[in-house]
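TASK: fixed-backbone design
INPUT:
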């Protein structure tokens, strides 16, 4: 799976609060079966590799085959994620009420949803790294107010997030969340 598609999938899952229950690889992609905490709804996030056509687009014939082989009744929500879809493929997916995500199409999320997902991620990382979630700036042991030096990337990104949120820079908020999700603490 390409890094870009992987990042988009992680972003969607983090922002919407989805937890992966099962991951299934197949010849042209990966299916993530997910659910939202406290819900029994099943969500399918189908990540598609580029169609083998010369154009690099995922076409309507590919989409029709995938939909035909898919038991839509089994899922409460379905999202197809791919690099590029033809207009006809996008139209077909929309008619079947399947959400489409591509390099040019990203689901709309409010800044508050981004911020909540980021804050949840920060809290989890702080809990793992320092065994507690700081309640005040002074509680964070890896930040020195005197020299402004960050000894902790989680804290640095946390401060960056507030700046990016205040300026409404959604692309930078996405980058902040991607950085947090990729941390191995």
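OUTPUT:
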């Amino acid at each position: 799976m390409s890094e870009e598609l992987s990042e988009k999938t992680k972003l969607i899952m983090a922002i919407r609060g989805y937890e992966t229950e099962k991951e299934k690889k197949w010849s042209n992609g990966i299916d993530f079966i997910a659910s939202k905490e406290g819900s029994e709804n099943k969500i399918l996030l189908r990540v598609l590799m580029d169609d083998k056509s010369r154009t690099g687009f995922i076409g309507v014939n590919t989409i029709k085959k995938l939909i035909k082989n898919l038991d839509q009744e089994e899922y409460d929500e379905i999202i197809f994620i791919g690099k590029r879809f033809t207009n006809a493929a996008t139209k077909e997916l929309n008619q079947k009420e399947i959400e489409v995500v591509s390099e040019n199409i990203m689901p709309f999320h409010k800044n508050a949803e981004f911020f909540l997902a980021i804050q949840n991620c920060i809290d989890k990382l702080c809990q793992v790294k320092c065994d507690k979630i700081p309640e005040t700036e002074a509680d964070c042991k890896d930040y020195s107010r005197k020299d402004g030096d960050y000894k902790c990337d989680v804290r640095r990104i946390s401060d960056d997030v507030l700046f990016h949120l205040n300026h409404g820079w959604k692309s930078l908020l996405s980058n902040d969340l991607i950085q947090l999700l990729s941390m191995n603490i």
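COMMENT: The chain has a mean pLDDT of 85.
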